[in-house]
Amino acid sequence: MLLSNRPRAQRSRCAQDGYGILLLLAVIFAMATNQQTIAGPVYPEVGTYKLQRIQPAPSGWVLENSPWLPRRLSSYTKGKITLFTFFYSTCRDPDGCPKAWEAFQKVHASVQANEKFHSKVRLVFLSLDPKVDTPEMMSMFQTSMSTPEAPWSFLTTWSESFLAPILNDLYVPAAREFDDAGKRTDVINHLIKVFLIDKEGWVREIYTTRFLDSDVIISDIGTLLLEEE
Amino acid sequence: MRKLLKSSVCALALFVVGPTLTIADETCNSPYTSALIKGQEDFLHVWTLGEVGVGDESDKLVTIDVQPNSPTFGKVVNSLSVGGRGEAHHTGFTDDRRFLWAGRLDDNKIFIFDLIDPSKPKIVKTITDFAEKTGFVGPHTFYATAGRMMIQALSNPNSHDGQTGIAVYNNAGELISTHKMPLENGGDGYGYDIGINPAQNVMLTSSFTGWTNYMMDMGQLIKDPEAMKRFGTSMIMWDYKSMKPIKTMNVPGAPLEIRWSLKPEDNWAITATALTSKLWVVKKDDKGEWQAKDVGNIGDPSKVPLPVDISITADGKGLWVNTFLDGTTRFFDLTNLDAPKEVYSKKMGSQVNMVSQSFDGKRVYFTTSLLANWDKKGADNEQWLKAYDWNGKELVEKFSVDFHAEKLGRAHHMKFSAKPTKAAALGE
């Protein structure tokens, strides 16, 4: 729901601001494109580089849609190329979950638009806040975001004790803040890491907030697909 | 061992991680290092070489309280001996800043310390098969990338010369891949430091010398003209994503530490050459090609002051440069990058090697040891940590720790840490 509302709001603002903003954006885009040519990063062509096997994807038990049917996490990290990260729905840090959302949305759109990715790539979000992010809540996100061509699973767990081993296996520190009175708050500090996992269940690339470039992710997915072929 | 690392993550409940990744704190860290120290650092960890006749004679991680409001400010609060002397040298944090990897150049052991309680680091893993697994020796630079630790080695176990490479480990301490330093297209095969500029997808490496030279007595080395030829003369620009060299630049005289400017719009790096006593800047020319440029002298090169560690300010406008043989630190104004200007210098002692500054540049720390066999002898073998405030005009000493009087050894690489704030790890 959060995400399905956002594009509408953005479109609305753009419409109100009119053509002046569109013109400005066009100029900025042209400048950015020009800058990229002169001084921007140069990434290797898809398939011309090797993504190393960094570590196995973790095991564990997760929930999708129903609190009564536990599923193995491996059923979401094997069989397809998987883009995986942690999030929680009440995350308010603009440099945290929203950046992951943005990157995943872009990747999702690319997968959706590119037929060669269909049935070969999935996206997975796993909640850091199982108390708030219930299976019912997650299923609403899933209904809104997932498509048959580009499946996007929104998972949660029964409790933090099921979540913690998965976090530890992936070396993702996550901790709930205390307020001044020493009471736990709803703020979860965590390191944003996005994991690209091959269909054998090996983590092949890790992206952090500062370096979360959807174009690079798409290129890496393409490289893994070529490797499979 | 993997389980041990993981279980230590589980077992210790109180820690804090920053939700955002902006820039590293002390300015020499990898850009992938997170969990910033946003204010005053609480502890300084000094990777210390054991020394014959000094304390337990073992290499150790020494922890010093650097919080001015603490009753133990300026005091050693912990000393963790790791056993033996293997030429302790450099350290590096993992990307989550939770673990500190520390290497030894002679016996190639790598110790992984858990800093969940930074006042009492614990060893959670020791890698003992680095040479056997990688084909390299002398694990020098520890440079975090996402979920991984990149290790630049200095030599190899066969010829013990400077032909070497880079090993990449995962955060559990398992080897992922190795990458030889290039010998083609002008490459000399030597290695020393690593600096990644993720915004440009490039990695820059520098070049020093092999095991035979860095383990040789310095007096003997400088009298051996053949040995003195065996130093690196190149810097390599790599495509970081593919780990393929894209350009070799001729930088004679052993280019050592690499510091990319941390200013977001900057895309240049600076280094100092040990033997030729020069500053070099690496940046793109008008055609978009990476070039290395000699931008000036450090002291009087004819006197061979031997530049060693450097530390760049967060705004990319200033650079500390230590010169080992004259025991002097120098501050360069980098405003004109084509002609950096030395604007301050201070004699620190008989010898000085490492320098680390806080991210705001207001606090600067210095240590003495270069290599066990290169340190000065007798009374000139001072071994200390000195902490200063920098007011933009002069260094004002706050405290010092005499590593001989404290029976610790030779003070080398420094890293900062901060006390954890109140938060509970998920699942605790």
Automatic annotation (TrEMBL), chain B:
Molecular-function annotations in GO: methanethiol oxidase activity; selenium binding
Top-level class of the enzyme under EC nomenclature: oxidoreductase
Superkingdom of origin: Bacteria
Signal peptide (UniProt feature, chain positions): 1-24
Reaction catalyzed: methanethiol + O2 + H2O = hydrogen sulfide + formaldehyde + H2O2 + H(+)
Pfam families found in the cross-reference section: SBP56
Keyword Acyltransferase: no
Family recorded in the similarity comment: Belongs to the selenium-binding protein family.
Entry protein name: Methanethiol oxidase
